[in-house]
Predict the 3D structure of the following.
Amino acid sequence: MKPAFYVTTPIYYVNDVPHIGHAYTTVAGDVLARYKRLMGHEVYFLTGSDEHGQKVEKAATTAGETPLELADRVVKRFQALWERLGISNTDFIRTTQERHKKGVSHIFSKILEKGDIYLGEYEDWYCTPCETFWTETQLIEGRCPDCNRPVEKLKEESYFFRMSKYQQALLDHIEANPDFIQPKSKRNEIISFVKEGLRDLSVSRTTFTWGIPVPGNEKHVIYVWFDALTNYITALGYPENTTEYQTFWPVDVHLIGKDILRFHAVYWPTFLMAAGLPLPEKVFAHGWWTVEGQKMSKSLQNVVEPNMLIDKYGVDVVRYFLLREVPFGLDGDFSHAALVQRLNSDLANDLGNLLSRSTAMAVKYFNGTLQAPAELSELDQTLKKRTEDMVAAVDACLNDLAFSKALQAIWEVVSAANKYIDESAPWALAKDPANQARLATVMYCLLELQRIVHCILSAFMPATAEKALSSLGCQGVVNQEGLNWGGLKAGSTITKAEALFPRMEG
Ligand code: MSP
């Protein structure tokens, strides 16, 4: 049986249209999903939309729509963007779907029956944009400590989740599983937070209605984060013991942004503990993008829209830039200049030129028919070894979610290949028919290296890889075996590749 791999993105709020922050996590998830499929895993890749809560209700009122009308409209924009970005998700869950609502009611009832959810009264400060309650002492100058916006005092009857009860169990779990929360700096933040003490958590609201009703007490709707987090299991069919649930839960990795780590690394695991369900293997929090040095925000009118970027630069350039520019886990800055720089240097010059140069030579010297290599020289052996080492390095990097480092490892081989052309000087070999066998070997090494590079790059830049592999005469041959040296067969047809990436003015 194929090994299973389950990766998720957050489910996005529908009160906002998609921006590069959303695209970032989703592309990262896609690369992982594609890579694991390439490596022979059975992959479940989940994304979706978070449609309940006061924030969405308010946005709908402002827009003069019902919350569901708003959600139906905005969700299409997310779905269309994911399609354009080549996102290969297995499923798209909407929290307004019946399958989800059923699962949320079930897990809520289960914890309620167990006594870990109880009815009480709440009085505290609430930040609507963050959908989060804060105590007086957590506020910073009377404002939300996360987003610095004003908060309001809310007093209501509320159901509480006995989160305090799970404090030690959670700490023990974090200690026993060093990879559970990543990166390390974020793990330490969570440990300190939990050690300060977990309070019971309000998990219902009575001040608005747009949500899933509390089973048996319809005056209350279930807290939007309790509702949203549960998507990771309802998508698999929970509470039914479906094949998907059995195969894919617990999840291999929840990819999220650093702002929502506490929900994923504290709330969610304790909910699962209370429900008697296994915890996620890993929660990875990536950093935030600023734009040309500034915080991205509607009020600054500097929100970067992925569709605009795709129109301007192309899908694969955007995918590459997002994952190459900033190490996953750190904050980074988006700028058009940095993107154009990457496009011109890494993509057009290094990767694109290598392919057009070498396929042009294959056509010129051998009429586009791939020749069998003779014995490999030391130079060739070194190149082959570097390619093989790169495949192993990429695997290690992707298991650590070090996307940028993985791409760096690939580009080292691309540079080595460009250097190899200069060192082996095929144009000089071509002058003397006595060098035919040597020339054939050089061409083989060059093209075979690129076949492997594009095979692995198919996870990052699927459309580019397909074009490249097609000019190498092996389109569609993308699997784990394809990462081994020797896949190109003598006699196959090489066609001159068009420039993969047009250079752009900075
Ligand atoms: N609905 C919740 C998630 C529920 S998951 C069970 C939510 N949605 S969101 O639409 O507001 O944000 C989704 C993701 O976008 C978060 O992971 C957040 O970190 C990410 N980003 C929002 N702005 C971002 C940047 N400027 N840069 C990088 N990621 C950013 O939160």
